[in-house]
């Protein structure tokens, strides 16, 4: 199990750092006409933390009961969406337009979700072999 966690971290830490750096540069230097309320680093810290916790849980479920991994992933996806709403709630409660902040949040959301899907498929395939 440790081998899987270290392999996951070996992929996710550099990927998160690179994507965060690119988005930070884009938000700071590329898009000057919009005042972003959410910090890019905070967004990526949220996504990395949630993705890592979900990965650990799915790895545990795949080891204990492989046929439940897909269901666990669907449940975790619901929890991820609820956590996203809680994370964005201060922004949602404000008056005004926050479309740029929502895009800055949901682009990495779907990148991290895609990585989770990749690993869930990998877990299911490992158990079927």
Characterise the protein shown here.
The protein is mostly helical. Helices cover 84% and strands 0% of the residues. It contains four helices and no strands. The relative contact order is 0.15. The model has no long low-confidence stretch (mean pLDDT 91).
Strand content: under 5%
The radius of gyration over CA amounts to 16 Å
Order of helices and strands: HHHH
The biggest sheet amounts to: none
Q: Helix count?
A: 4
Q: What helical percentage do the residues reach?
A: over 70%
Low-confidence stretches: none
Please report the distance between the alpha carbons of the first and last residues.
18 Å
Count of individual beta strands: 0
Classification by helices and strands: mainly alpha
Q: Summarize model confidence as the mean pLDDT.
A: 91
Shape: elongated
